[in-house]
């Protein structure tokens, strides 16, 4: 059954990084369920393409590390739809694997800026609105790096751990009206993975090594995360808050 707000109107969902990868699959899943979806992304070409292909999707060009982007998203949601029901913080970056002593302060700042800062800004902008509405849901994408860290990714892992702890804390602060949860993917079949593996004679071997490290022997697919997001964004999870849903093929066991 499609997720509906009061008066049987479609829910309004905001997805960051929704033009590609996990985010695009999340956008498609909510749209198929009858929701109105606003994409926040810097990829104008892919974002506008998704908007043209689906009348339920709107694209808003913006940097999610900047408060004005979130204020613009709120204005668009309220002007067009009268409210916002779900915020999915999916946008994120990683870095090349190497020990922490080889990393620069700039890499640290950039990773935390993109992965953590939008979680706080989105809550500052939207949580009060959701409290006034009497309902709302935040879904933040973390990583198995929080609980099963891989060497070479100390900054990335720490940034995702910050997101997870912040999410659990805000779940306590804003209950019962607003729910906050995380999704923790394993390594995903996305452009982020492809950029880290890169092309080369050993790229296929490296990819196979990643797959073999997962008990399910395959990469996390975007649709896997989209299905989890739909569950956490629906009334099926109405008693679930402050938790992390691991979609990791058993890697966290």
TrEMBL record:
Organism per entry: Penicillium roqueforti (strain FM164)
NCBIfam families for this protein: PRK07231.1 (NF005559)
Keywords: NADP, Oxidoreductase
InterPro entries (alphabetical): NAD(P)-bd_dom_sf, SDR_fam
Protein family according to the UniProt entry: Belongs to the short-chain dehydrogenases/reductases (SDR) family.
Protein name per the record: Short-chain dehydrogenase/reductase SDR
One Pfam assignment: adh_short_C2
UniProt cross-references to Gene3D superfamilies, sorted A to Z: NAD(P)-binding Rossmann-like Domain
Sample GO molecular function, one term: oxidoreductase activity
